[in-house]
Specification:
single chain, 211 residues, alpha/beta, six-stranded mixed β-sheet, 8 helices, globular
Length: 211
């Protein structure tokens, strides 16, 4: 086995459930809902069924990712001996986090977004390119494609899409519009020259038995 990288989006958080009209961004203090706890446990059970066990676990510092890791790993009998990395956080929106989405994205802001594409960012926040570069920097510093290792990386939906967009040349519309459901799993495997996308945003029940 060469390196395998499982990019795991956190389970449902309170912010996800209650504040769809607000800009979430990092919202690092938002915990999982009861549904989210069930999703995280189910993720662990589905991984256990398929004998998918990590050799390394990396987690964003957000409460929702930490909880997702704790509940899912407990189901497969893995201790919470994981590494927390700031670079795995969600795209930041600075002072606009928690603000009303409709009031923030005025016609003028939307025009800037369409013109600047992957470089667009709200004041004090990050762009798609910023987020993808941050995730890519972390990836290259922590993952050795030739190592016989399986990495679980608990992170966030937009952060995952920005990294994939950077790595595989996705346009901004694809990064924005692709869905990354709660507790979904994306698998990257090393190819002959570059990393390859084995599958994207599979729900736990959709995971193959082995790869």
């Amino acid at each position: 086995m060469s390196a395998e990288v499982y990019l795991i989006r956190h389970a449902e958080s309170v912010f996800n459930r209650d504040n769809d009209h607000l800009i979430g961004g990092r919202s690092n203090e938002s915990p999982l809902t009861e549904t989210g706890v069930d999703q995280a446990k189910n993720l662990g059970r589905e991984l256990l069924k398929r004998n998918i066990f990590p050799t390394h676990v990396h987690v964003s510092p957000a409460v929702r990712t930490l909880m997702t890791a704790e509940y899912s790993l407990a189901e497969i009998g893995v201790s919470n001996d994981f590494q927390v990395h700031d670079d795995l956080q969600e795209m930041g929106h600075g002072a606009f986090e928690g603000k009303n989405r409709a009031e923030t994205y005025t016609p003028a802001v939307i025009m800037d977004l369409r013109q600047q594409l992957k470089d667009f960012k709200l004041p004090g926040g990050e762009s798609m390119n910023d987020t993808g570069l941050r995730m890519g920097r972390w990836f290259d510093a922590n993952i050795d494609p030739e190592e016989n290792a399986r990495h679980f990386v608990y992170t966030h939906g937009m952060a995952i899409r920005c990294e994939l967009g950077r790595r595989f040349g996705w346009p901004p519309e694809q990064i924005r519009q692709n869905t990354t459901p709660n507790s979904s799993v994306t698998l990257l495997l090393p190819g002959d020259y570059e990393w390859q996308l084995a599958y994207y945003a599979y729900l736990p029940k959709e995971l193959p038995d082995n790869y």
